[in-house]
User: Fold these one by one.
Assistant:
Number 1:
Amino acid sequence: MWLPSFHATQLLQLLCLQVFVVKCGMSIHLFNPYQPPVYGFTLDNSIDHYTYLMQNISQHMKDYVTPYPQTYFGMYDQKCAFPRGKVLGGTSAINYMIYNRGNRRDFDRWAQEGNYGWSYNEVLPYFKKSERAMLKGLENSPYHNRNGNLNVEYVAYRTAPARAFLKGARQAGYRKLDYNGESQVGTSYVQATTSRGVRHSAASAFLRPIMHNRPNLKILINSHVKDYLFGKGLFTMIGGVESLTFYKSPNSQDPPDWPDAEIIQLGGSFASDEGAGVSRGMNIRRDIYEAVYKPLERYPTDHWSAFVMQFRPKSIGYLRLQDKNPWHWPKFYPNYFKYEEDLEILLEATKEVIRISQTPAMQAIGTRIWDRPLPNCAHLHFGTDDYWRCSIRTLSCTLHHQVGTCKMGLSSDPTTIVDPHLHVHGIQRLRVADNSIIPYPITGHTNAVSFMIGEKCADMIKADWVDERMQKTKITFH
Ligand SMILES: Cc1cc2nc3c(=O)[nH]c(=O)nc-3n(C[C@H](O)[C@H](O)[C@H](O)COP(=O)(O)OP(=O)(O)OC[C@H]3O[C@@H](n4cnc5c(N)ncnc54)[C@H](O)[C@@H]3O)c2cc1C
């Protein structure tokens, strides 16, 4: 059996199965503890470089992103960076470690479209199965589990702006909540996939504990899967992210408990690392950095930023294989802002950040907007809707939650590739179990859901295996 996913560990419980973890990248010092961290607009008022370094290493993927005339004005070649973790542990080894499962309505929608077994109530046990929640105050929550492999904890270090932002968000009308619990619309310090402040990737959480004592596990690094042979067996802040606030735009047609955007508050800004990592990771042009952010280098700790991330955009991108050669990269066509509605949601969420920044809690720490205009938007009056629209088109990029390239659904739907058992349509013994099967963008980040998919797939494979054995050993009585 070949499995490109970390969820090999579940299958290893079936000792008679041989499990290969195949990675086309390297095995970085994943088990080295020095691996925390990640990377809007900036407000006046510590970032570790690991994540940025890894993103920069995988930057070559931007070469395969097509430029889009409506956006990325602030990026080199008008291209957004599309890094991927081609290492043991996959993208969980380079991501920002935000643990956010999504909204119950996301999964209920999957199920309503024929993906039986994938409703929220059915996937919740799988989210919980992999989780070891070390979340103070949530010890007795029915939404969390303390006995899984993947550590989830609140970030231990909190800056003064983070504390003020959370207080400000509450003063602006948001309630403090567990966004992985009963409801999502509110505000919270970020829950992170770290263990005592150290990154807990798929490899460190699932493979490391068992890699030396499972004879049926083979880890193949620097190995690229080219063919599938049919018929044969085969430091503690997480990149500066400190709190999340879930925003519902006034024009939304969706139910009130289904937020449209997430406000990600970060201690620091692009200038915190003097433009060396974060802005490079995002492919931001140096002239933009110099004009807007460089002056902030004089005040290394007196600023914070907010990123606004839209959930469920109307504009949908796609990728296309260039040819049949497995060594040739596909081409990515992100299509951001094809529909103006998406831009308007980011505009409204940006104005919401400004509203929170004007609350008494935020004013008490002297918050003001860093009002150096972006050079290409300087003809517009700073702070007007049109200025922010221009700014959004200049600096927006992706938080890397690409999904749906191998969409799950019924075979009657020509846009789908796998069925609800994750079998490729028409091919019984080939399954796909990663984020590509997610049918629609979720109201969250995609790491937690990839673990859930892996857990569920492992259970389905085990159930099939047991079924097959039962068939083979069927005893007939005469
Ligand atoms: C910079 C960045 C930051 C992110 N931050 C967050 C965050 O804070 N929170 C969050 O929830 N999500 C975040 N994400 C998204 C999240 O990490 C990913 O969606 C998730 O890890 C994807 O898991 P996956 O199993 O689908 O794929 P991956 O983890 O990417 O695994 C794919 C694996 O397959 C291997 N592979 C691919 N092709 C081949 C081949 N032909 N042969 C052999 N092996 C192959 C790769 O080497 C890789 O190991 C971030 C993503 C990025 C890029």
Note: Confidence is low (pLDDT under 50) at residues 1-6, 26-41, 44-50, 231-235.
Number 2:
Amino acid sequence: MAPISLLLLAAAAISAPLIRRSGPAPELYYKNSNGAGAGANNRAAFPQPARHFSSNNGAFNYAGQQQTVYGACSAPAVRREWRSLSQDAQRSYLDAVVCLMRTPSLLTNLSSVSRSVFEDFSYTHFTVVSQVHGTAQFLPWHRTLILLFEFALQDFCDYKGTLPYWDWTKDASAMHKSPVLSDSAFGGNGNGGTPSCVQNGRFSSATVLMGHSSPQCLTRRFDDANGMQAAQYTGDVVRALVQNGGDFANPPAAGNDPLFFIHHAMIDKIWNDWQDENPQLANAYSGNMDSMNPNGNEAKLTDFLVDLPPGGPTNGFTLIPAIQVQETIWSDGGGWFCYIYE
Ligand SMILES: [Cu+2]
């Protein structure tokens, strides 16, 4: 992304009011159960779904899932930037994440695969990593993963809030001063050892599994040597910051770090902002489906989101429900997708 557009985004984030999608409905959007066409003229026709999953059969259960119908989101949840939450709200978010790390896995009872519901997310991400990075599904798939994570916090850990996002542009000039990376929040950089363990914050005693042969400390290795101006916030600089080492730097292991979810909420917000500024392109979707075939251009709005492969150690249990890309294109399109960013 060009530096200038990030500057504009940063400026817009400071003063932007809450924005509902105002562009055209995706042409391929589902029709509702009465057969009525989708779109603004049929707004009231579809009920809000019981959007949370349940676990009463010991697995992620999507029986309550209803298809997304554009315009059916009448009361969107609002996601806020981390530092605009009260201390109490920050604490309850972190409490809920810790709780999810202590909630036994619903995908498998093999502790070598996934030990908790939190790790069900990092395991799923780990397993399908080549199909959801460097591919067309990057934005819709991560949008959905973090939405399900938000639901899991609410369903399994009684979390009353929404998923916060981390506007890292606010921290670009001094990452080590970020309140996100403070003692009372997500903790800061690793200790520089091998592994470079995070030793402060709410997750200093957590152990992580994906991408490691056995459980080990959560690791980070940020490069905070050069203060950055927002104008210098280029892709290379971001890579130096987050890809210098540690779990977050390695896509298969990235889901180990609780920062992953608030970081992807920021990415998701940027997608939203871009759609608002480019309504004629807001439904655009194309590209390759596998990072091993970068020139493929086979992706379609009717593709289903990538899920765990059949078989494997989870005995057919999966996290990602049958959702088509077109259902995810609008964060407040309807059904489960009913949130906006402040
Ligand atoms: Cu990812």
Note: Helices lie at 3-15, 87-102, 117-127, 129-132, 138-157, 235-242, 259-277, 325-328.
